[in-house]
Design brief:
Layout: H1 18-28, H2 41-48, H3 56-62, H4 80-92, H5 96-103, H6 109-113, H7 116-124, H8 130-144, H9 153-168, H10 177-185, E1 199-201, E2 207-209, H11 211-220, H12 228-237, H13 243-252, H14 256-268, H15 274-284, H16 289-301, H17 305-317, H18 322-334, H19 338-350, H20 355-364
Antiparallel strand pairs: 1-2
Helix pairs in contact: 8-9, 8-10, 8-11, 9-12, 12-14, 13-14, 14-15, 15-16, 16-17, 17-18, 18-19, 19-20
């Protein structure tokens, strides 16, 4: 069961794909294999949007017609038939929590089970002061700007402080306000086995944002402007693995400088696809060819398949010697990139090399 499917996706070769499903099916033998995943509609749209080559695995899995994937839209409220079935189950096996959820006059059954009422009451409670609401707004803003990873405490407190500054000017918050708010938001709101929390502490570190709050707040705040101080907090504190998502959001909001700075952070952290993204950013800014090529070669040295492909195309477009282009293709093939063997065969044929040599390259491919 994969909750929040978008967290399991990634650039080619780094996330869930049809190839991975094939491998799982092959290792399962005679045991039936079913992978169940949940994803909000807007996150599905974001994950499959655009035509970037690095996202072709995601589009092939989720956007293109396939016998691999069956999509089921879950309605916000139970149908009459479903309510009747749940009622019959509760007659035989009483459960006060499920009964309250079924009879909730405001929220749907699943939203009530997930604590929608408690979460909104907690978020809106003026008695706690502004700190908790600002921390939750910060978490929602990070999600609406494409962030998918666990939310680090440092990121939450930095973004919350930026939101405070936007609304309070030079007035300083109480010391430790936002650390206290994070701790408070991570506490249980319901005294049952599972509990309900606005921020969910994760074993891997950081926090998740409660699903209902995420859906509600990202929708409510979708038109809120993102200030310079919030962008600075994102640039400095977004976790590795999410940096290119932040760069995409910065590009969408015409924050060209932030986009470049975040791309540099991502490249320094060897995030897959970062060197390619940075190279294109530099090229669009009219930076010297030597600087662009240096970034591409750094990505190649770091083992990024996208950078290896880009280096080959770059060398060809720069009219570099044939031997240099061929060596780049052979290096990619040696590194284990399957596509490079095909490129090598095509290259050799275009250079009028002996038929036997071209045939050998095709056989290796």
């Amino acid at each position: 069961m994969l909750n929040e499917l978008q967290g399991f996706l990634g650039p080619n070769g780094t996330g869930l794909s049809r190839r991975l499903l094939d491998e799982l099916h092959a290792t399962a033998g005679d045991v039936p294999l079913v992978v169940v995943a949940t994803v909000w509609p807007d996150k599905l749209r974001n994950a499959t949007a655009g035509g970037a080559e690095d996202n072709r695995d995601i589009r092939e899995l989720l956007a293109e017609p396939s016998s691999y994937v069956r999509r089921h839209d879950v309605a916000a409220r139970l149908s009459v038939v479903e309510r009747t079935r749940v009622g019959q189950v509760l007659e035989a096996h009483p459960d006060p929590r499920m009964r309250r959820a079924l009879d909730d006059p405001v929220f749907g059954f699943t939203q009530a089970l997930a604590g929608a009422g408690e979460l909104l009451e907690f978020y809106r409670d003026p008695g706690r002061g502004p700190g908790v609401a600002l921390v939750l707004d910060a978490a929602a803003d990070y999600r609406r700007l494409g962030g998918q990873a666990a939310l680090p405490r440092k990121l939450l407190t930095a973004m919350a402080r930026a939101l405070w500054d936007d609304s309070h000017g030079d007035e300083a918050p109480d010391p430790g306000l936002f650390d206290w708010a994070v701790t408070t938001a991570a506490g249980r709101l319901r005294d049952d086995l599972a509990g309900v929390r606005a921020l969910i502490p994760l074993a891997s570190g950081g926090y998740g944002l409660a699903d209902y709050l995420e859906a509600h707040l990202t929708s409510a705040r979708r038109h809120c402007p993102v200030s310079d101080s919030v962008w600075d907090a994102l640039r400095d504190h977004a976790p590795t693995g999410d940096l290119l998502h932040v760069a995409t959001a910065a590009s969408r909001h015409a924050r060209v400088g932030i986009e470049g700075q975040v791309c540099r952070r991502a490249a320094a952290a060897a995030e897959p696809g970062a060197h390619v993204r940075l190279a294109f950013w530099l090229q669009l800014r009219g930076r010297p060819a030597a600087e662009v090529e240096g970034v591409i070669r750094e990505g190649t040295a770091a083992g990024d398949p996208g950078a290896r492909r880009l280096l080959i195309d770059w060398l060809k477009n720069q009219s570099r010697p044939a031997a240099e282009v061929e060596q780049a293709i052979r290096d990619a093939a040696t590194a284990g990139d399957d596509w490079a063997h095909c490129r090598l065969a095509e290259w050799l044929a275009s250079q009028d090399r002996p038929a036997a040599e071209v045939e050998q390259a095709h056989r290796e491919a």
